[in-house]
Amino acid sequence: MPVKINKIAPYNYEIPKEGNMTVPGRIIANDEIIRGILGDAVKNPLHNPIQQIKDSATFPGLIRYSLALTDLHLGYGSVIGGISASDLKEGVISFAFTGFDINCGVHSIIIPLKAKEIETKKKELAEQLFKDVPAGLGIRGKFVLNKSEMDEVLENGASFAVKKGYGSKKDLKFMEENGCIKGASVDAVSDKAKERALDQIGTLGSGNHYCEVQKIEKIFDGPAAKAFGLEEGGVMVSIHCGSRALGHQIGTDYLPILDGAVKKYGIKIAERDLVCAPIESEEGQKYFGAIKAGSNAAFANRFVIGTLVKRSIAKVFGVGEDEVKTFYDVGHNTAKIETHFVGHSFDGEKNKKKKMLIQRKGSTRGFGPGNLEVPLKYRKIGQPVIVGGSMGTSSFILSGTDTAMKTTFGSTIHGAGRSMSRTSALANWKGEDILAELAKKGILVKARSLKGLPEEAPDAYKDIESVVEVMHKTGISKKVARLKPLICIKG
Questions:
Q1: Is 111 part of a structural domain of the chain?
Q2: Which regions of 316-373 does DSSP assign to beta strands (E)?
Q3: Are strands 353-361 and 234-241 parallel, antiparallel or unpaired?
Q4: At residue 351, does pLDDT exceed 80?
Q5: Going by fewer Cβ within 10 Å, which terminus of the chain is more open, N or C?
Q6: What distances in angstroms separate CA 92 from CA 62, 268, 384, one per listed residue?
Q7: Distances, alpha carbon 118 to alpha carbons 18, 435, 436, in Å
């Protein structure tokens, strides 16, 4: 059966509503990416990004469409790079729309040094970061919490780290939700999940997570860059990680609970990985409370690592910890109640706003200028958007726009998106070869294990320049700066 997908505007493709779909699918991408996912659909008709978008479009209470952006690729149940908006009364909250690594995101800081200064002590800085930032599977953090402290992390997020002497209270305003999502339910998180996280706050983990020192290589928007405090030749550090074992355990705990809710409420789902519960149900509210708690743990985790990085820089370069500025922290596996337009300019509907549940999976919040959720320092420009690369590729700083608020529920891309499975990447490359190749490009990689490096090989991902360009040309996010990796710390 041929796959139906229609180009309705430049970079905008629609999967028509059919069968049990309650809304159409929508993909914002270029022709090359569309050809790629159409090819995936031919090779594997039952398990491909297009089918996952169609399956995700069968939920009740969805608003406008099942949406995916340029970095989309196959995920657990639903695509990574996807966004869903659900009516609070009629809609459901689904595990597949947020995933296991709750509030995986990026925390970025600005170093008051030039890239040429970093080069003079590059190896020394890499060694210091590798020593100070706990990274790797099952790694222990710098401090171990007791149960009551863990509950405090789940409730208060990054402010707990400040209380413990990590970072400053003024830095919290440069975090999404000020580093804490209100309404977290400590009791909705199992003792097992809490126990697994007692020694993990302030740890990087493994897989695609990293701590990367980056040169600000090119400025695209001078006024935005000035407002953001970015200068060509300057240096940033970006930390990519999430809620670690805590988030994974929350997901593991709630899969059977949500499976029971599907049966209890008679919800028809397209496949078993899409288990869910009505948002207003007891199960839905409990899961939502657990997601908020997991999100707060992730905020605290990244905030602590950010402080460890600042201290490493102080040791190597003699720069005061307070001179290293927190730039921004934003998540890309989230579930939050936000106010957005119901209609859409493409649909010709009259726009009106309402509160809805927004679930982003491999998708970043990208609010536009004037939004009160954006830090005052950046508000005229729009929210900073941090788009992460993969070891050898560039990263980008973008700015949120009004277009995103009207068309993508204030959402944008989080990275390039995979073009190859981890299994295929492992078959194609060896860790030693990747290290050598990156070294030739002047990129120093320090990793606890070489075994997992091939999974994150640069060529296992789409071309990030092309992916970012789609967001820029559609006006969903605007290019501000391109970052080149200098040092990458991996688990």
A1: yes
A2: 325-331, 333-341, 353-361, 363-365
A3: unpaired
A4: no
A5: N
A6: 8, 11, 30
A7: 56, 20, 21
Domain assignment present for residue 171? The answer is yes
- Give 388: exposed, middle or buried? Use CB within 10 Å, 0-12, 13-18, 19+: buried
d(CA 188, CA 283): 10
Q: Which DSSP helix (H) or strand (E) runs through 197?
A: helix 191-197
Average pLDDT value for residue range 26-49: 94
Measure the CA–CA gap between 297 and 292, rounded to whole angstroms: 9
Query: How many angstroms separate the CA atoms of 290 and 296, rounded?
Result: 10
Q: Write out the two tokens for 295.
A: 């999100």
Tokens for 147? 């149960």
426-463-457 Cα angle (round to 5) = 20
Tell me how far apart the alpha carbons of residues 430 and 127 are, in angstroms, rounded to a whole number. Answer: 23
Terminal-residue alpha carbon distance, the chain: 43
Coil vs helix vs strand at 479: strand
Instruction: Give the domain CATH number at 316.
Output: 3.90.1860.10
Paired with 86 in beta bridges are 62, 357
Look at residue 156 and tell me if it is in a domain: yes
| Six token digits for residue 111 | 């170093």
pLDDT at 221 over 90: yes
Please tell me whether residue 441 adopts helix, strand or coil conformation.
Answer: coil
Classify residue 281 as exposed, middle or buried by CB count within 10 Å of its CB (0-12, 13-18, 19+): middle
Are the C-beta atoms of 193 and 243 separated by less than 8 Å? no
In total, how many domains does the chain have? 1
Q: Which domain holds residue 410?
A: 105-336+373-490
CA distance 23 to 84: 11
Asked whether the beta carbons of 50 and 3 are under 8 A apart, the reply is yes
At residue 350, does pLDDT exceed 60? no
25: in domain: no
**Which tokens hold the place of 146?**
């007791």
The whole-number average pLDDT for the span 430-455 is 87
Residue 169 in this model has a pLDDT that exceeds 70: yes
- From residue 365, give the alpha-carbon distance in Å to each of 157, 175, 177, 335, 408: 18, 12, 11, 11, 10
- Check 209, 332, 340, 414 and give the catalytic one: 414
Q: Look at residue 348 and tell me whether its pLDDT is greater than 80.
A: no
